[in-house]
């Protein structure tokens, strides 16, 4: 019997895109393993040779239509092993807090994979985050985001647990 394949390294950039009413833009999908809905921030994998900052700017443009916004500071990092599309990844996530005025999301820049897997988007209030039974990414987003918005960005990014 052969050894299981090593997870594929996947540096990732995620943007905590928060409007003037402290609502965060999240995209939804369905967990392949259990069929549950999950919600995660704007973002995705870094292309070869791309820094997390460059990937964050590209992903914001592709997933929301925003192309003239300054990327905010990196506030969190998270490492996890995840399986998606039958491939196991060693994800190295970088989270950036970016403030914006509310806007109409334009998903016309979605990749083919995003069009097939993203099931919706929503500007979530902090109360909605606390009340939802859907899975949030990161798991403690409903607790972490209000603390971050109240205290402001940390001097160095915080390493999150799963």
Automatic annotation (TrEMBL):
InterPro entries reported for this sequence: Nudix_hydrolase, NUDIX_hydrolase-like_dom_sf, NUDIX_hydrolase_CS, NUDIX_hydrolase_dom
Q: Which UniProt keywords apply?
A: Hydrolase, Magnesium
| Top-level taxonomic group | Bacteria
What cofactor(s) does the depicted protein rely on? Mg(2+)
The residue stretches assigned to a coiled coil in this entry are: none
Which positions fall inside the Nudix hydrolase domain?
Answer: 8-149
Task: Please name the GO terms that the record assigns under molecular function.
Answer: hydrolase activity
Q: Which family does it belong to?
A: Belongs to the Nudix hydrolase family.
Q: What is this protein called?
A: NUDIX domain-containing protein
Write down the species.
Nocardia panacis
The lineage, from the top, is: Bacteria, Bacillati, Actinomycetota, Actinomycetes, Mycobacteriales
């Amino acid at each position: 019997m052969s050894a299981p394949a090593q997870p594929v390294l996947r540096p990732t950039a995620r943007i905590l895109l928060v409007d003037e009413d402290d609502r965060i833009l999240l995209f939804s999908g369905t967990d392949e393993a259990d069929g549950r809905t999950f919600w995660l921030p704007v973002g995705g994998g870094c292309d070869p040779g791309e820094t997390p900052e460059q990937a964050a700017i590209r992903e914001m443009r592709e997933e929301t239509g925003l192309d003239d916004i300054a990327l905010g500071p990196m506030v969190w990092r998270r490492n996890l092993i995840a399986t998606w599309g039958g491939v196991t990844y060693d994800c190295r996530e970088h989270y950036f807090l970016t403030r914006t005025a509310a806007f109409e999301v334009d998903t016309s820049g979605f990749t083919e994979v995003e069009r097939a897997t993203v099931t919706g988007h929503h500007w979530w209030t902090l109360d909605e985050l606390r009340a939802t039974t859907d899975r949030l990414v990161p798991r403690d987003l409903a607790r972490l985001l209000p603390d971050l918005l109240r205290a402001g960005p940390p001097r160095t990014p915080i390493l999150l647990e799963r």
